[in-house]
Amino acid sequence: MVRLSAKPLTLEEFLQQPEAQPASEFIEGEIIQKPMPQGKHSLLQGELTSFINANLKPKRLGWAFPELRCTFAGYAIVPDISVIAWDRIPVDEDGTIQNLIPFCPDWMIEILSPDQNQVKLVKKILIGLAHGCQMGWIVAPEERLVFAYPAGQQPTVHEDPQELIPVPAFAQGIQLTVETLFGWMRVRADESGKHSGDAQAGHSPNPSPSGAQ
User: Fold this and answer.
1) Are 147 and 174 in contact (CB under 8 A)?
2) What local confidence, expressed as pLDDT, does residue 190 receive?
3) Do the beta carbons of residue 55 and residue 171 sit within 8 Å?
4) Could you give the C-alpha distances from 95 to 78, 90, 116, in angstroms and in order?
5) Range 58-74 average pLDDT
6) What contacts 157, CB < 8 A, 6 or more positions away?
7) CA nearest 27: which of 147, 126, 154, 111?
8) CB within 8 A of 73, min separation 6: which ones?
9) Pairing status of strand 135-140 against strand 145-150
10) 8 A C-beta contact, residue 31 and residue 18
């Protein structure tokens, strides 16, 4: 996470600036650019977004969005994955989703990149929890663990391979183990080069028979 400006700005001034790549966020008057995603980050972001949508969208429970800008209470954040409960997705008159999301997502997911400052990610999660977020995750690929931040409760650490990672109330149908989540990073299952992407229902790879159903 790269801090671009130490000069206090207003949210309106920030939103008038050209979009950057990777995206920039506006937190406490500062513009902070997100790090460029690397291999594990990009793979987990894509797989987890698709997994959540495969479980929530058919039941109209919620929708997961990668790199969605959310603007609220003087902040403009871009979580790696934003999950919004179905009945809170803002729409235009024709029923299509609005471009501007004027609130914090119900479930924020951040994936820790190499050399990224975890403290700043925790701070962003806490800001979200103070403004209506139900659950925050920080996924640490190198350590193979997940920090979960449920609203109004103490954070928890999940690293047992068979452990189910907690999800917000509106997403209780999702069952995802630590093993399955980080198994998605495995491109080749063995020396023969066999890919593991076809085992799990839908599209998501299941690293072993004991993965989440």
Assistant:
1) no
2) 59
3) yes
4) 23, 9, 38
5) 96
6) 145, 146, 147, 148
7) 126
8) 131
9) antiparallel
10) no
CATH architecture of 37-183: Alpha-Beta Complex (3.90)
- Quick one: pLDDT at residue 200? 43
For residue range 86-140, list pLDDT tens digits in order. Answer: 999 999 999 999 999 999 999 999 999 988 889 999 999 999 999 999 999 999 9
C-beta neighbour count of 102 within 10 angstroms: 10
β-strand 81-85 against 70-72: which pairing, if any? unpaired
**H/E/C letters for each residue in 39-88?**
HHHHHHHHHHHHHHHHHHHHHCCEEEEECCCEEECCEEECCCEEEEEHHH
Task: Tell whether the model's pLDDT for residue 209 goes beyond 60.
Answer: no
pLDDT, mean over the chain: 86
Q: Give the pLDDT score at 198.
A: 43
Q: Where are the domains positioned within the chain?
A: 37-183
User: With bands split at pLDDT 50, 70 and 90, how would you rate the model's confidence at 202?
Assistant: very low
CB within 8 A of 72, min separation 6: which ones? Answer: 102, 103, 104, 131
**Pick from 139, 77, 137: which is nearest to 103 by CA?**
77
